[in-house]
């Protein structure tokens, strides 16, 4: 090992935390189709969204500005963990015998162990500034819920979280973490909302889904003046907040003279992938580099690769505006894979639009291949990845193995968006040979797509 | 918040990872009393230790050199997480209304989420270089066991861990993490060793203790030529390896022009406290600064404050040499507090000697006060601390509150030696009002002290 004296971990001082979020909307050849009101099928206006979101986000959602200023009060909290390290996976490269150079941007150093606080903090800040008293939200694996609970504790907001039942049962520690930050957590579907009660009446054993949990959180926020709703992915402003990841990675790679040949991230709602790739896409569109950009989604919830690009609801119950996106149908309930954060029926409308424009590729991977990648990564790089980024790692490893055959010394950049310290039960299942790869028959997708609005 | 523009997180580039460990033995006015052979009561020689440890450590254990070179191969692995950040706890300061400035050295960014890899990596490296095939060890909360499992996976060694049953049951995720790194984990007391079987015969429901687990790991290492034993605390060389923490903190504080008035850490076996404080003690002995140095131990296992300074076994069964240390008696079984890593009957002999020399203070704290500190810290600084460093935080907060009364703007340095992502069940008990403070009657201590060898 001592024969390889180059840098392993590329850090930036806190003065290098980006001062602006990058808004990719400004650089697209065409804007994405607007959200529609489900009744009138007319584009929704700011007034339709005001009961749910503060005006800052409604403006950010449609802004044509290339850069949005990050408030000093937000950067002050970002300093706790940002800039996050960019790490070269030298031991993984050696284990693969690849000439590729693999870099991963590691978000697990944040207080909650994932990239989610990048948007939770500004969301809590803007809401607190507007006088909101309580935020509601949904969470899958619990990464988003923990992040919002943390951010609310910083700004003195109440936080109420609907957590997908499959994860609520599998991952009690994330739930307890939210509680430690002072949040209230419900298993979703829950009896405390009309939407939840209705689903429980049909199926008392429902494992839940992100779509259902969103319905519940939106219902409660819509019914109280002092309460707003916060979303951890999917919407433009959320993706924009995450661009700090890519901006930092861009500076970090440049500092060691590297230009990426491949950028590969995991997609559920799409926020981590967007955060990593948008700043590089800006450079690509400007002709300054030409990386291939690739999304990896779970085979059990393949919205890009097997969904339809169509208007659909963002939630299961049909409370949200209609969003044009790659969808498996708003009432599609994915099998209970361990990557709970990727179990969403749709894809961020902005990413869906960009995918249609051909700005990046997408592949789907079954969870066993992903956990195999996760274990190899843990045993070489030491960090046990969350199930979500094992999809990104599986994509990076696939490419690095290809390079081992072709001899190409490609530079691969990926995002390790969280550690798996809350996900050890999933690793146990994998190591015990008990992890299943779910079969997803085409009829099942067609059935839910047949119920598109 | 924006009115406080100073630095929050002080990072160092990986080129600043220390090149040498600091050996405090070189600067003490008198050497600590030597370990004794339990039969002859003569000082043990290198040959007595060779079946358990590689010669590098036997030499480091008694070295009079002030600095020990860190092998390049070890620094190469350290780069994954070192230098760790030093963070100013501005939000905690504000919550306490204190003029004190609180800095914490955060080791939770390591792959396993604690400071333990600082010694696990060199231990695995030296053993691997000497041709050892397998390492055995004990673990309390699982932090040390995870660290050694990680280090063994890096150097291709087998790893076998005896985990204190109380933690094995309370913290399945740490056990699964060790398994993910490829280690084999036993609940201790276990039926696979003579020492464990004997204790199980007397008490089938024994919650175990670090002393018992050490007996088991030592027994297995002593019985196989290709196997050595690794210890996560207590011994001189382990404490020395941890001095990277203090060396980095010294440089980080200096870079912002600060000199500590108080250094406060938690003590179980003593490695984190030693690692943080020794380099500052060097500066103090040289007259370059004059911080108060304070150890905080759990009231349920108070070796400094209520133990006896005497020769005792390091393990429960009496397999180890006799060590002169502050001890509660080698068969003292502490109540099952959640800070499993602090449930050790003795204290590092080096620290015990230094305590007798008056080089630092010690206080004991009950676990509810510590968890109260942990929750306040989580809700202000965002990081949920492991139960062990909540003791250090409780000590720091106590001093900061005192400063709020006196108006003294003291600089307080503490060590957050690990995150609590594996310890959420303990927080749940605390928040539910179900956490107990154990009563430790003097007779119970006297009883086990009556059985000193």
UniProtKB/TrEMBL annotation, chains A, B:
Q: Do you know which Pfam families this protein is assigned to?
A: PALP
* Domain named Tryptophan synthase beta chain-like PALP: residues: 81-418
Q: What cofactor is this protein dependent on?
A: pyridoxal 5'-phosphate
* Record-linked InterPro entries: Trp_synth_b-like (IPR006316), Trp_synth_b_CS (IPR006653), Trp_synth_beta (IPR006654), Trp_synth_beta/beta-like (IPR023026), TrpB-like_PALP (IPR001926), TrpB-like_PALP_sf (IPR036052)
Subunit organization: Tetramer of two alpha and two beta chains.
> HAMAP family given for it?
Trp_synth_beta
Q: Which PANTHER family match?
A: TRYPTOPHAN SYNTHASE, TRYPTOPHAN SYNTHASE-RELATED
Please explain the role this protein plays, according to its UniProt record. The beta subunit is responsible for the synthesis of L-tryptophan from indole and L-serine.
Q: What name appears for this protein in its UniProt entry?
A: Tryptophan synthase beta chain
Taxonomic source organism:
Thermomonospora cellulosilytica
Taxonomic lineage: Bacteria, Bacillati, Actinomycetota, Actinomycetes, Streptosporangiales
